[in-house]
Write a structure and sequence with these properties.
The protein has 452 residues and is α+β, with helices and mostly antiparallel strands. It is built from 11 helices and 18 strands.
Length: 452
């Protein structure tokens, strides 16, 4: 399955990735006829033109008595059992082309075609080589399959691909998942469930079974017809070189930052994450060296499961997010942290059951998939969440030592948020130009909160 990687993906600054084997893992059971096809909602279809979710976990290598061949076999077996619960991931996207109005409908075809499972080795690369550098080494991108594979190609490419890369003293498990099929909540639901099955060899059920029913979604009316004119397939525009750095924030520093933001605004409504994102946005804006009248836009993916009435089940498997925007001028830096945090707070408060219904109904009438170009122009793009259970993903040989993301949907201004390894801490993976990242190190307001 050579198409899973480009030549560039096979090399990193530390050397080549050696691919050992590729197998196709399928669920043991087939879904019933009633669940053979899953229609897609506007929440899901909005992501048809962009790339997959790519997240992976770095582990210390298990003890010497656990041979790598046995580990790979165990992971394949547990993955197959996990796909019994998450069977859409073993399928492909299906399409219906409507000649009467020149539109296309997308759906999930639960055909059990399977999930590629790639075994690879990064010979001589250690945990320290990944964790110790100031910037995330580019070789990490080669730990993921399906780079440069936009979601619409799920009609022929897998909806999920897994790569297990052996390091000199560790293991990296990377997953690439089609973003039309799942959001971050569903991605980590799958990852956590796979590790749960891996830990318990006799497990019959998982603690949180996925829910695929689409009737919960407000304003849902299937199938949604997307005009061919809106399906303009193009990748992210080329930009200046970027690097990635992970900034760590401890619980105590975040609490103090939240207190400061609320005090400045005379409220108690600003959350810890909103205060932290305001701090980050202020630093990026300051170090982008914008004129006072130039605008910067926060693009935030807002989770909708708890915001509709009644709330969607947390284990709803699919996409339940909407894009929120906050636009400010660089000159507003002088208004302080509280002002910036409050703008984020007020934007998020507008996302309700009514807004979800309006979005679904209006999008179905006039579909506008998100284009890569629309994400990259003067925007700080915020994705993922510190609420996702990253460090509880234990496959049976201990918790992860780190989480990293792949190269999908990366551009100057892309920010990925993870829970930190310590309780209450947060890690922010910032993809920015080298000049911006270097300048941020001299930004006292920002670095006073960062824990090195």
């Amino acid at each position: 399955m050579e198409h899973l990687w480009s030549a560039a993906e096979k090399r990193g600054s530390m050397g080549e990735i050696r691919f050992i084997s590729t197998a196709t893992v399928a669920p043991r059971r087939k879904p019933s006829e009633s669940t053979q096809r899953i229609d897609l909602t506007p929440w899901e279809l909005q992501f048809v033109l962009v790339g997959p979710i790519q997240k992976g976990l770095l582990f210390r290598k298990p003890t010497q008595d656990q041979h790598m061949t046995n580990i790979i076999h165990h992971l394949k077996t547990s993955l197959s059992r996990t796909l019994d619960f998450f069977y859409p991931l073993a399928g492909r996207l299906g399409t219906t082309v409507n000649g009467d109005d020149d539109t296309t409908c997308f759906f999930i075809d639960c055909n059990g075609a399977g999930v590629p499972f790639i075994r690879a080795s990064a010979d001589g690369v250690t945990l320290g080589d990944i964790l110790d550098p100031v910037y995330v080494p580019r070789i990490v991108y080669s730990f993921f399959p399906l780079n440069d594979t936009p979601n619409y190609r799920g009609v022929s490419e897998p909806l999920l691909a897994v790569q297990v890369t052996e390091l000199a003293d560790g293991i990296f498990i990377g997953c690439s998942m089609n973003h039309v099929v799942a959001d971050g909540t569903s991605f980590w639901h799958f990852f956590n469930s796979w590790s749960e099955i891996s830990r318990g060899s006799d497990i019959i059920n998982i603690s949180q079974s996925p829910v695929f029913e689409r009737g919960f979604v407000p304003g849902a009316n299937f199938p949604v017809r997307i005009p061919q004119s809106e399906l303009v397939f193009g990748g992210f525009p080329s930009s200046s070189p970027t690097q990635e750095r992970v900034f760590h924030f401890r619980k105590e520093k975040i609490a103090a930052l939240k207190e400061k933001a609320n005090a400045e605004k005379g409220t108690n409504q600003i959350s810890s994450l909103q205060a932290l994102l305001a701090l980050l946005g202020r630093s990026v804006t300051r170090n982008w060296r914008l004129r006072e009248d130039e605008e910067i836009t926060y693009l935030t993916l807002v989770g909708m499961r708890p915001r509709i009435d009644p709330p969607l089940p947390q284990q709803y498997f699919g996409v339940a997010i909407q894009c929120g925007f906050v636009t400010m001028k660089a000159g507003e830096l002088q208004l302080g942290l509280g002002h910036w945090a409050w703008q984020i707070n007020q934007m998020i408060s507008t996302f309700t059951h009514i807004s979800a219904t309006n979005f679904s109904e209006s999008w179905a009438k006039n579909p506008k998939p998100i284009s890569p170009v629309s994400l990259t122009t003067g925007k700080i793009g915020l994705s993922s969440s510190p609420r996702f259970n990253v460090y509880g993903t234990d496959f049976g040989w201990g918790r992860p030592v780190a989480v990293r993301s792949g190269g999908g949907n990366k551009y100057d201004g892309k920010i990925t948020i993870f829970e930190g390894s310590e309780e209450g801490s947060i890690d922010i993976e910032a993809c920015l130009s080298p000049e911006t990242l270097e300048s941020m190190v001299d930004d006292a307001e920002f670095m006073d909160v960062v824990s090195i």
